[in-house]
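Trying the structure run again after the queue cleared.
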Amino acid sequence: MRPSRTSDVFDAVAHPVRRRILASLRSGERPAGELARPFRISAAGVSQHLKILREAALVSERRDGRRILYRLNTKPLREMQDWIGEFENFWNDKLDALEKHLARKKAAKGQAFPTGK
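Done. Tokens:
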């Protein structure tokens, strides 16, 4: 088991509150107070989640007077999606091979096997 690191994108998106924060930032930058509103946790708790998202480079912040505005950075999410996509291709190939193998076994027994294609 690997140790948890706050700069790890996978660890950052593992928590449902952080995923909801990221989802709310899809429509544009938001102040911290607005991001905290939907949650039943303290403002300090939301700040901790925002800190983890910042350290994972999933959000950036800028000051606007006394407010801190948070903005989504999609680059780490795209990189994660690309990495996961490599495994999707791997498993699709394996499942296709399994489907063909089972079809051959059924055909050898004289039974038709629907491939769905």
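The chain has a mean pLDDT of 88. Worth checking whether this holds up in the mutant runs.
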